[in-house]
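Bumping my old thread because nobody answered last time. Still need a sequence for this structure:
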């Protein structure tokens, strides 16, 4: 891996400056790699998961990979323009100029997760290539078929000095994180992110972390419960809840709990009338994660929660050979239950009541800052209070997850849910160095301002002028 990094950095330095035409060519090849091989990617995704909806993969891993690349290609000229900045009075009047140029950083490392193992490689790669960088990508060991396909196809569409894919387990990941990249992007669990930061710190590598957390849904007092529950279920059951932005728990007004339970059950039954043989429903990624979710459900039951399993076709999941799991709604979840302590990352949804909107806000604020927050309701004052009194990575109003699909909205978390952001222009800026440039006028400014010794009245006047503001 170090040899690849050295070759990429050498090629990068030899190429400077990286023209818009070169950047567009690389973006074009990145899009072609996905478009030309979309069926193979969908097949390998399903093989890695044990079953994954073909149509969902087309949406969440194929189209959502190509879209940011196309957007970057169209926006490139605007993003690359130098940014003029004002200069201090009176230097501007004397002919001084200042601007910012966005230079590529060099070689960017990308560590991708398993839940969307195509999109979460290609979406950041759009910003990396648009910014004029080279890239090394560490794919997830939990999706080995996708990883192998990336290594095969990457060599066909890119020289290894441009974009390289590497795979392997934790030892490879640890070594990858310790490479002296010019920037490192990690998408994954908060616990692993701490190790990534430690590894990157030895080389002072700047890091962007895209993590997760317990993203809440607040259902306002006047919300349309049928609409809210349907949209929550759609977001919770997509990819079987294995989404960093999936609604993690739901806060509903006291007195509307049963209405929420009924709405969730009806929506899940309508969207997925059966599960085991349903091609639209995805399996849990592996046995370990399936057992983890099963243990957390049993922990909630043992500690007094009521768990409703939404199984409209009365299927026998214990007798099936797969890892599909129906939606489990956990009512009366308490803080001592694991489902209220850890990010769930599966089709398990705790539902809790609140009495006043400030109680719901307090519930959110006493936990780690989440990657996303969702609010349903019609009361604008209530909504404004939720937005003003909570802090989260991003927000979708009257739905869930959708803010991630808006290419010009920065995507990222805050605190334990992440560090930094990308997507669209934010990604271009993240993977660029904002280089400040100042051009002095012809006049001798140092002499005019009394900056040359011996100091006297001129410098005192200059200082007094600056102190006035």
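Sorry it took so long. Here it is:
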């Amino acid at each position: 891996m170090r040899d690849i990094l050295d070759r990429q950095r050498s090629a990068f330095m030899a190429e400077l400056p990286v023209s818009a035409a070169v950047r567009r060519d690389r973006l074009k090849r990145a899009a072609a790699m996905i478009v030309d091989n979309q069926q193979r990617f969908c097949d390998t995704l399903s093989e890695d998961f044990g079953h994954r909806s073909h149509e969902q993969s087309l949406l969440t891993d194929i189209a959502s990979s190509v879209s940011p690349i196309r957007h970057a290609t169209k926006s490139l000229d605007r993003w690359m323009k130098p940014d003029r900045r004002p200069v201090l009075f009176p230097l501007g009047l004397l002919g001084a100029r200042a601007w910012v140029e966005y230079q590529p950083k060099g070689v960017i490392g990308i560590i991708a997760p398993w839940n969307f193992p195509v999109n979460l490689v290609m979406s950041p790669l759009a910003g990396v290539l648009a910014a004029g960088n080279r890239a090394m990508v560490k794919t997830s060991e939990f999706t080995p078929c996708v990883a192998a396909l990336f290594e095969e196809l990457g060599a066909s569409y890119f020289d290894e000095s441009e974009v390289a894919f590497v795979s392997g387990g934790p030892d490879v990941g640890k070594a990858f994180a310790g490479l002296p990249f010019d920037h490192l992007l990690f998408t994954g669990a908060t616990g692993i992110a701490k190790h990534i930061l430690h590894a990157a710190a030895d080389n002072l590598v700047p890091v962007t972390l895209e993590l997760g957390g317990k993203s809440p849904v607040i259902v306002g007092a006047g919300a349309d419960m049928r609409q809210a529950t349907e949209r929550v279920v759609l977001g919770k059951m997509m990819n079987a809840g294995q989404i960093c932005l999936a609604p993690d728990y739901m806060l509903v007004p006291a007195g509307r709990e049963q209405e929420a339970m009924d709405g969730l059950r009806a929506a899940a039954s309508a969207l997925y009338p059966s599960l085991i043989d349903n091609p639209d429903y995805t399996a849990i990624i592996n046995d370990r994660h399936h057992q983890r979710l099963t243990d957390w459900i049993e922990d909630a039951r043992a500690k007094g929660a009521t768990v409703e399993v939404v199984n409209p076709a009365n299927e026998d999941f214990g007798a099936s050979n797969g890892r599909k799991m129906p939606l489990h709604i956990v009512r009366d979840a308490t803080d001592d239950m694991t489902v209220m302590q850890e990010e769930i990352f599966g089709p398990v949804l705790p539902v809790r009541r609140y009495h006043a909107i400030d109680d719901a806000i307090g519930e959110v604020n006493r936990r780690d800052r989440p990657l996303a927050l969702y609010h349903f309701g019609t009361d604008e004052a209530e909504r404004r209070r939720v937005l003003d009194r909570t802090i989260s990575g991003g927000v979708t109003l009257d739905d869930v997850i959708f803010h991630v699909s808006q290419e010009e909205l920065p995507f990222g978390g805050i605190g334990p849910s992440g560090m930094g952001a990308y997507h669209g222009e934010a990604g271009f800026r993240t993977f660029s160095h904002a280089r400040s440039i100042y051009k002095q006028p012809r006049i001798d400014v140092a002499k005019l301002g009394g900056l040359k010794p011996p100091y006297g009245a001129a410098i005192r006047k200059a200082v007094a002028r600056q102190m006035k503001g």
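The chain has a mean pLDDT of 95. Let me know if any region looks off to you.
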